[in-house]
Amino acid sequence: MGSISPVLIIQLQLKSQKVGPYHGLKQVQVDMQAQTIQLDPKPGRFSLTHSKLSILLAVALVLFYNLAFFRNVIAIYPLTLQHALFIGSLALLITAAVSLFLTILSSRHTTRPLFILIIVLSSLSSYFMDSYNVVIDSTMLQNVAATSASESRDLLSIKLFVYILLLGILPAVFVYKVRIVQRPLRKELLSKAKVTLIAILVIAAQLFMLGKTYASFFREHKPLRQYTNPLFYLYSTGKFINQVAAADTTEIKPIGLDAKKAIGSGKRQLIIFVVGETVRADHFGLNGYAKQTTPLLSKQDVISFPQMASCGTSTAVSVPCMFSSFDRSDYDDNKGRSYENLLDVLNRTGAHILWRDNNSDSKGVALRVPYEDFKTPEKNRQCDEECRDTGMLDGLQAFIDQHPTGDFLIVLHQMGNHGPAYYKRYPKAFEKFTPACQTNMLEQCTGEQISNAYDNSILYTDYFLNKTIDLLKQNDAGFKTAMLYVSDHGESLGENGVYLHGMPYFMAPEVQKNPAALVWFGQNFNDIDKAALKARAGGPISHDNLFHTILGLMDIQTSVYDKGLDFSRNDKQLTKK
């Protein structure tokens, strides 16, 4: 926007009127000192004050970016006359709250860039909430930060680009182009005060007029608040930033400093721990699922745990938690980052540790042990449309043969059933269940198609686990061999309109918290009562048991080991901690 000195304007006017150039000019200069006349280089261009733009954007965000929120509200408060009044009041309250927030943010230098950023982020948030019914909390942001490029590509779709265009780019262009009126500071502050006061009064009025309904809403339906866009994801962003900042300054605290190998424990241990991805227990053929998704494992002497409970509903939480010494109730991201884990304890005893990853990464678990990335053809020789989990088995025998002494714990982190592109997670030869959903836009597929694609992925995991057992059998003569398979969490396949995973634990459906899990023991694990373990395997069990169970299987003596949580040796009914 151009501006011109008032002194120059007046001088030009005086000259045109043939008046002495200094006649009365000194007084005018004093009166108009430090003032400017604002000129719009494009006369007639639409203009708004900071406050009016804040209110306009707040209205647009509530009307067009909160479909998931109002859809979930209407599911609980059907559109009767009584409920319609409350829903309208709720819309007004949120609009006032967003207006208040945006008004506080707005200023001469912040309004345009911050509003554009909020618009773009809200369009993305709206897409994922509308399409998958997920919420954008700090855990979800942690998942986003840990997502690899290949996983991100699976989320791309035409619908996503439409959302970004209509709800992101076009409104952002409007904010970029609109003329924002720059008023004197005093007037601007007065306007902000008026909007703030009105917004507070509107919020107070809604709470007062429908107090009982709001009391019930806030007390009984807390999860609904997490769908408010942009308020909740902005709150979650602040929380996530604080977590990351705290983690950057955290020192690693050691655990199990007294850990040592038990004397006279017999043959060396060779244990492979397969960390699965997104496999829910009720779709495992071993657990009585209608479709036989585990035909090869059903022929092996495996023990399945149909009541396994996960530590979290996302990889970023569950994977570090299952290797942690903390129970789910005590675990948080800061503890996961600031304390050593199971691999550190075993590494201290001289065991050979190896982590092979065909997922995004180890989520911080394998930072201090040998780590191999199998997500690219340079390392993984079994890649077609994507690199396959079976490629992680290549070269393992050579690794074992290189170490004539010492025990082994090998971790294989699968790509498994990572959604939403389930159809990519298996070679076409494994497409047994048809018709299978062939897109990452799950809302375009029927429930049967989604389930079939998902189950075909499990069929491929069955093949991978069977090959892993075959590798262990080749080493059975010289080792006590075992394979543990535990998925990090389950998955929603469209039940009640919810897809994928990552919901806050307290509100997540059970299918996201009940992952598949099993164990196989070689012939030399004679100190395990397999019949007794199989008899109690149908009871409750959780990720909390894994830390202690693996220490027990590796015959490690340490003060951090709790036999009561070791499901391989506890002779009582297993219970969740």
How many individual β-strands?
17
Q: How many domains make up the coordinates?
A: 3
Average per-residue pLDDT, rounded, comes to: 89
- The CATH class designation of the largest domain is Alpha Beta
Query: Over all CA atoms, what is the radius of gyration?
Result: 31 Å
Spatial arrangement of strands, main beta sheet: 7-15-12-6-11-9-10
- Helix/strand/pairing category: alpha/beta
Distance from N terminus to C terminus (CA atoms, Å) equals: 65 Å
**Biggest sheet: strands, sense, closure?**
7 strands, mixed
Report the CATH architecture of the largest domain.
3-Layer(aba) Sandwich
What is the percentage of strand-forming residues? Answer: 5-15%
Q: How many H/I helices?
A: 20
Helix content: 40-55%
What can you see in these coordinates?
With 577 residues, this protein is α/β, with parallel strands linked by helices. It has 20 helices and 17 strands. It has three domains: 2-38, no CATH class; 47-248, no CATH class; 262-565, 3-Layer(aba) Sandwich (Alkaline Phosphatase, subunit A), CATH 3.40.720. The chain has a seven-stranded mixed sheet with strand order 7-15-12-6-11-9-10, with helices on both faces. Helix 3 (50-64) packs across helix 5 and helix 6 runs antiparallel to helix 9 (158-177).
